[in-house]
């Protein structure tokens, strides 16, 4: 910030904030700049100003993918490298902002054990960009007994309240549902993490438009095993981490490795579509995230809800990809203003919190 405004009421001004998001599907680093202001009725309004996604260099991508198996020192080196990459990309965009909010990159997420780790040095980012930096938005909620996720539900409540629900199709699929009294949100199951893993068996980063899945057949036995995973019987609050993916889901796929890749992919798409469709409420549901570009997945979803009262609507470009980074910009603003940005109705914590660590340059 060039100077501090000490005369204007904090809620009687517009704020320009940069949000950073790095998801478990490793699509890249999302950087969004947004402007927010609150109107006379106390309602928040937001505008996406800029958005870019930066692919990770191959070496950094490989290290992020293998981060769960690293020792402490190796992980700290990775955090340094990720933070330097992130700060350099923010600086390269030359954007002015009041401050920055970074989700970081999740390595561990075990709320049942009181542990969550999102690497990303707020000190490095603040020092390199010259911007106050907010990071580590999950830890305080977990300290109060919450799941630390999903976080974007606060954004959906304030900025997308004209929808009955919002769904993001990232590495995992998650949903948030708000009414006048409370907001509920949870991870529904795997999405791009599963589909990209299968694609890599054929040397592809992802299944473009779902063409591989479209050429396969559903294995009823595999589908039944996937839907029988214990997580799907749990009631919210609940959230997923890559530990669950590797420990619970991967063994089911390995057990069925005799199936063709096309059939495994087709079955996986059906599994994902069913887990999502079964959670949708009546009304318009806004979909975002890279998974909406999988045309076969979205076609299956449309067919599964055709006789229900749910109506699928897809975000406009570039919000399809920018929504989470845009959302973290808003969550950072709530933290800066000492307002609650993590809801205990979502996470099951003993209280809602204004979460995040602030680093000043």
Quick rundown:
This protein has helices at 58-65, 72-93, 122-129, 139-143, 153-159, 192-200, 211-214, 220-227, 242-255, 261-277, 295-305, 319-336, 344-347, and strands at 15-22, 29-38, 44-54, 99-110, 115-119, 133-135, 165-169, 172-178, 183-190, 283-288, 310-314, 357-359. With 361 residues, it is α/β, with parallel strands linked by helices.
N- to C-terminal separation?
10 Å
Structural class: alpha/beta
Helices and strands, in order, run as EEEHHEEHEHHEEEHHHHHEHEHHE
Radius of gyration: 20 Å
Q: Count every helix, treating DSSP H or I runs of 4 or more residues as helices.
A: 13
**Low-pLDDT segments, ≥5 res:** none
Overall pLDDT score? 94
Helix content: 25-40%
Main beta-sheet strand count, sense and barrel state: 7 strands, mixed
Task: Report the portion of residues in β strands.
Answer: 15-25%
Number of DSSP E strands: 12
Give the overall shape.
Answer: globular
């Amino acid at each position: 910030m060039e100077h501090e405004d000490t005369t204007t009421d904090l809620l009687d001004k517009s704020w320009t904030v940069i949000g950073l998001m790095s998801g478990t599907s490793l699509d890249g680093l999302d950087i969004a700049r947004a402007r927010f202001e609150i109107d006379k009725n106390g309602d928040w309004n937001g505008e996406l100003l800029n958005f870019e996604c930066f692919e990770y260099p191959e070496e950094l991508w490989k290290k992020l993918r293998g981060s769960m198996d690293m020792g402490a020192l190796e992980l700290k080196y990775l955090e340094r490298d990720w933070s330097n990459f992130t700060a350099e990309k923010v600086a390269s965009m030359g954007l002015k902002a009041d401050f920055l909010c970074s989700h970081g990159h999740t390595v561990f997420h075990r709320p049942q054990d009181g542990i969550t780790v999102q690497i990303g040095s707020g000190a490095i980012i603040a020092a390199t960009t010259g911007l106050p930096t907010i990071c580590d938005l999950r830890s305080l909620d977990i300290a109060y007994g919450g799941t630390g996720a999903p976080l974007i539900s606060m954004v959906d409540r304030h900025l997308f309240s004209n929808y009955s629900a919002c769904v993001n199709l990232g590495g995992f699929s998650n949903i948030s549902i708000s009414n006048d009294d409370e907001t509920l949100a949870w991870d529904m199951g795997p999405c791009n993490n599963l589909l990209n893993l299968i694609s890599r068996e054929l040397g592809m980063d992802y299944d473009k438009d779902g063409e591989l899945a479209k050429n396969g057949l559903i294995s009823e036995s595999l589908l039944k095993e996937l839907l029988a995973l214990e997580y799907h019987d749990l009631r919210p609050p609940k959230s997923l981490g890559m530990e669950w993916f590797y420990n619970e889901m991967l063994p089911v796929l390995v057990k069925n490795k005799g199936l063709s890749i096309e059939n495994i992919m087709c079955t996986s798409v059906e599994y994902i579509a069913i887990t999502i469709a079964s959670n949708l409420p009546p009304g318009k549901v806004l979909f975002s995230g890279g998974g909406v570009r999988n045309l076969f997945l979205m076609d299956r979803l449309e067919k599964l809800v055709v006789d229900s009262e749910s109506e699928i609507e897809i975000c406009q470009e570039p919000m399809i990809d920018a929504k989470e980074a845009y959302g973290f910009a808003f969550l950072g603003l709530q933290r800066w203003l000492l307002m609650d940005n993590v809801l205990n109705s979502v996470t099951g914590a003993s209280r809602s919190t204004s979460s995040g660590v602030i680093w000043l340059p």
